[in-house]
Each structure stands twice: as C-alpha cells, then as structure tokens.
Amino acid sequence: xxxxxxxxxxxxxxxxxxxxxxxxxxxxxxxxxxxxxxxxxxxxxxxxxxxxxxxxxxxxxxxxxxxxxxxxxxxxxxxxxxxxxxxxxxxxxxxxxxxxxxxxxxxxxxxxxxxxxxxxxxxxxxxxxxxxxxxxxxxxxxxxxxxxxxxxxxxxxxxxxxxxxxxxxxxxxxxxxxxxxxxxxxxxxxxxxxxxxxxxxxxxxxxxxxxxxxxxxxxxxxxxxxxxxxxxxxxxxxxxxxxxxxxxxxxxxxxxxxxxxxxxxxxxxxxxxxxxxxxxxxxxxxxxxxxxxxxxxxxxxxxxxxxxxxxxxxxxxxxxxxxxxxxxxxxxxxxxxxxxxxxxxxxxxxxxxxxxxxxxxxxxxxxxxxxxxxxxxxxxxxxxxxxxxxxxxxxxxxxxxxxxxxxxxxxxxxxxxxxxxxxxxxxxxxxxxxxxxxxxxxxxxxxxxxxxxxxxxxxxxxxxxxxxxxxxxxxxxxxxxxxxxxxxxxxxxxxxxxxxxxxxxxxxxxxxxxxxxx
Length: 518
What we know:
Layout: H1 20-33, H2 36-40, H3 51-65, H4 73-79, H5 82-90, H6 93-102, H7 109-127, E1 136-138, E2 141-143, H8 145-148, H9 154-166, H10 186-194, E3 204-207, E4 213-215, H11 218-224, E5 230-236, H12 242-255, E6 260-264, H13 269-283, H14 292-297, H15 302-319, E7 323-327, H16 333-347, E8 351-358, E9 361-362, E10 367-368, H17 373-386, E11 390-396, H18 418-421, E12 424-430, E13 448-452, E14 459-463, E15 472-480, H19 486-489, E16 492-498, E17 503-510
Parallel strand pairs: 5-11, 5-12, 6-7, 6-8, 8-11
Antiparallel strand pairs: 1-2, 3-4, 9-10, 12-15, 13-14, 15-16, 16-17
Helix pairs in contact: 1-3, 1-6, 1-7, 7-9
C-alpha cells in the first residue's frame, strides 16, 4: 500500500503528509465496500489531494451516477470508458481496490472521515500560516501542535486554536460584557437619541416601480422595536408559512444595510428562490399573473418571462450581493454555529436565519426529536450577542398543540425555557373561519384598526369586518424585550396570507379567544 498514492497537487511540508496514504485509502476503501456512503456522507472530490486519491473518488462518483450500487470488477469494467480504463489498469486494476477494501471497516467510517477532515484542516492552517511546528504549552507540557493533533478530532483541532486566541490579553475578560458605574452622561443621552439599543426595523422592504415604499410588517415592527441583537424565534405549526413569513424580514434587513445568511434544513435553494421571485413580482412590480405553483411547474407566458427579468434586475441591484444561502441535510447545531461564525467574520454577515427547529414527537420512541432545543438556542443567542448580530430561528411546533386558540410558550412543552433565552418570540397559526364570523360569540377575534382622533389626538379601536374570502394567519408576540407583548395587552395581529404569491400582509389587530377548539 505504500505506493498506492502518488503525486500531490500542492507543495506541503513532508511532515504534514505522514499517513496521508492510509487516511485517503481508508475512506475510499469504505466507499467501494458500501457505495451508499458516498451519498450520505457529504464527501467532496476536493477533499482528496493526491493524484490517485482523486482518481478513485472520481471513479466512485461516476459509478454512482450510473446507478451502480455494488462496485465489483464487472460493474467497473463495463461502466468506464477506454481512457479511464487505462488509468485503472495502470493503478493495479481491481486488485488495488480489493487491497483498500481489506484495510477498511465501514463501522469505523466516521472515524476515517474525521481523520480526513482533520488532515485537510491542518493543511489549510499550514497554508494560512498557523505555527504548526512551534512548541506550545498544553496541560503544563511543551509539545508541538502537529504532534498534539494526532489524538484530536477535526473539530478539536479548530477549537485548539480558538482557545489559544483567548489567551491573548486584549485588556478585558471575555465573560464581562460591561463594567463600571451607572452614569446618565452625555454619551448615554446620545446613544438614546441615536436609537443604539433599538433593533433593525422590518417595516419597509424596498421601493416599488412607482417609487413608493413597500410595507413589510409595519405595525409589528413598531411594537417589537425591530429585530434585536441576539436570538429571535418565529414559531408555528407545519404549513403555517414560517419560511414565507421570513421573506419580508430578509428583504427589510438588506434594505437597512444588513447582510443576511439563511441556513435551511428544510427547503432547497430553488424552492426559496421561487418564493422570493413571486414576492418581488407581486409587491415590487404589482404583477399578479404568475403564481408560485405555475413558476414551479415551468408554465410561463412571454409576459411572465418579461416580468421575471424585471424582478431579477431588482434582486441583482439591491439584494443579491448581501444574501447568502446554505442548505444542510439535517439539524446540526455544530455545523450551523461554525458556518454562521465563518460568514459573520469573513463576509460581514449581521443577520443569520436558521430554518427550522422541529418539536415533533417520535411516536415510535415516545420522545421528542429535538431535545437540545434549549441548549442550541443558547448557542445561537450567545453567538449573536458576541458578534453583535441578529440570530433568527424558526421553530416547528408539535402538532399535538394545534387545537389551541391562544399560542404561548407552553406550546414548546419541555422546551419552553427557550422563552427565557429569546429576545423576541413570535408565534403563528392559521386563523379559523369561525374567528372571523361576527355572529360566533365564542370564537370571534374582534378585528380592529387603531385610529387617532383628529381633535383629542387619542387613539381608539375602530372595529373592522375581515375579508372572509382570504386565508389569514394570527401572529402572537409571545416575548418582546423591547416593548409590550400579546400576553400584556391581549392584542395579536391578523395577516392576510397568499401562499401562491408568498405574501403575508398586515390586515388587522385582533383579540383571539383563549382555550382550544375541537
């Protein structure tokens, strides 16, 4: 096996390439033993830096593209073309693959893969100038970092240098955010006048074709005083429209000069792109001819295509360069934290949205799927406050709570402690038709608009009859550090929801009944 891998694209110190043969061969051997690992593990071609390593992983990808599920000699020889066959034979044919399979154990695949990640992290650190060969003091002993890393995981290697950075004396203690006497001085007054403690408003998302401001969530933004630094949560049941609800917030953040990162474990990029596109056509261009379902199905008229081009111009001009999207396979807070920190530090992202936490009950095991919600919420909140960033997370509530008329933190069940972590918490549910029926005394939610008396200048509630032909969503302000919440004034918001145009529009304020319905 010592001659299995030859040639490295870049020049590295030889000390960094010790065991590189075994590291790449172990991963490749597992892939050829169980090709499904290639689909499930997130392996990428660029993870292999050697000529032969790249050859074998490219061959594996080609076999999977041809829907080959067993990488035996016959399958390989009947799939590859003559050019690839020459390279295959030069490397020892199928016997070389058998050798790699023989030294690999798929039960240890996660360990092999982490070793490969670690080796690549170390190479990246070397390229970036990290002192890998300069002895450091660790556990009261002097040791070379490269030697120390032999027993580390990839994540621990990164954490080691993060830990070393905290040892530099920058004149403050990391756990102390503020220290000193209370003094209502000119600096304090200036901060108040400048609105230093206010969040970023999400009332205006942009300017339409007529040069008029486009309302996002005007009244809601005013009540919550914008999106604050730290963690905000938007909670709702499946299909309530949480992912759609955040679109105006994203556009409003960018319109106010923020850079936004969306990390999704639910929707693919194309699905989210379609939502944004129909929203822009509807709100910015006042074009209602293209619905989301027709866009998804590719049923486009010439007029649709013309308006899509206009919508693209709007996106490219104002929003494109300040929005980033990442899709991940499943809930993985370590990955979310790492990518959020990377985009905040490297690209200046100031708002991170994570879509979605889930609180469904596992009927087979009779336990919650996401028992780490409270812990993960603290991670996001700390990250936001550390980097002065807004962290927004959507939460899918358990369906068992779906018959409640008034939503509050109790809907989070065992995870209701996240309310203490949040700076802002909104909760969304579909509005029932009975709640819009004035004759239904037990359910009617009493929609109203606030009006100001021109003479007395006092505010009063003007009752409104809702549009019963449209679908609505009721939004509760469950937690609001910067103002009043729904529990304090019993007031919520009614939004008109049009899924085909990916729009939420503020319609009324209301007072839903408490309790539940059958």
